[in-house]
Amino acid sequence: MLFNYTPNRENNTLTIQREFLADRAQVWDYYTKSELLAQWYAPDPMIITTQVMNFHEGGYWHYKMADQDGNVYYGMTQYKKIDPRYELSFFDAFCDENGKIDINIPGADWTVTFTERGDKILVQSVLTFQSLADLEQILEMGMEDGMRATYETLDKLLAEK
User: Fold this and answer.
1) Residue 1 pLDDT exceeds 90
2) Measured between alpha carbons, how far is 140 from 133 in angstroms, rounded to an integer?
3) Contact 94/105 with Cβ under 8 angstroms?
4) What's the pLDDT at 161?
5) What is d(CA 88, CA 146) in angstroms, rounded to the nearest whole number?
6) What is the dihedral of CA 116, 24, 161, 45, to 10 degrees?
7) For a designed S-S bond to 106, which of 36, 37, 116, 134 qualifies (C-beta 3.0 to 4.6 A apart)?
8) 91-114: per-residue pLDDT in tens?
């Protein structure tokens, strides 16, 4: 399946494109329902636990990620715009257990679109960072490998449906 990972250092963006053999409604659900997000949003063997999910414009998803060594990380997704089954816009960042954003790890504004292509769906995520330094930090943290791994998990889950 198509996977493109394209940093643009001129405008501090990262565009990620991935095709899935599924319909739009299935993929949308895996992006918007906490019980489904928890199954794929972090690379294996991490486990996600939803702390709070308020999926609506102005709402948020606060989640915990834990690995087998006992390391725990928290994330916060703040929903800005929701066009059901077509587009999601949100701010996503690491945070603490209380939801306070970690300013030492850059967050990004995401715009995610869902486009049908025959029997496939193209998910395009455009991440916009505050600065080139923020983009570079995320690239150095290994986001490409993490996205590949999570999308492979999502592929498997969609194939089971």
Assistant:
1) no
2) 10
3) yes
4) 73
5) 20
6) 100
7) 134
8) 999 999 999 999 999 999 999 999
pTM of the model: 0.95
The tokens describing 30, both together, are 């895996």
**What sign does the dihedral 146-151-153-154 (CA atoms) show?**
positive
40 Rama sector, left if φ>0, alpha if ψ -120 to 50, beta otherwise: alpha
Q: Which residue has the tokens 């915990």?
A: 64
At residue 49 the predicted structure's pLDDT band, cuts being 50, 70 and 90, is very high
DSSP 13: E
Give the domains, in start order, of the chain with CATH numbers.
3-160 (3.30.530.20)
Mean pLDDT of 128-138: 97
Run of H or E residues at 148: helix 143-160
- 29's CB contacts (< 8 A; 6+ apart) are 36
